[in-house]
Amino acid sequence: MIYIFHLLDKPDGAALRQRVRPEHKIYLAAVADRIAFAGPLLAVDDETMLGSVLAIDFESRAAADAWLAGEPFNVAGLYASREVHGFANLWPQRVGFPPAA
What is the CATH number of domain 2-87? Predict the structure, then answer.
């Protein structure tokens, strides 16, 4: 099942996010073949990172929770809030979406 991770940073987390980001990307690479989509949530300026949304296929909720427990941003204490929800993908993403600008 795909699990959606909705993760919001602490208000003062920008420096920590940048410092831990290389470890975060390595951790994501280990599950890259199971990621439907992933990326930062952005503020109204469309640049400032406020958190993360990830959609990753796991065999169980326990596996999704275990993955989040080891996720470097989480381990570093970046997140003010963490939500994980199962997701039924009833409208799969089109190939080539969004179109290149």
Answer: 3.30.70.1060
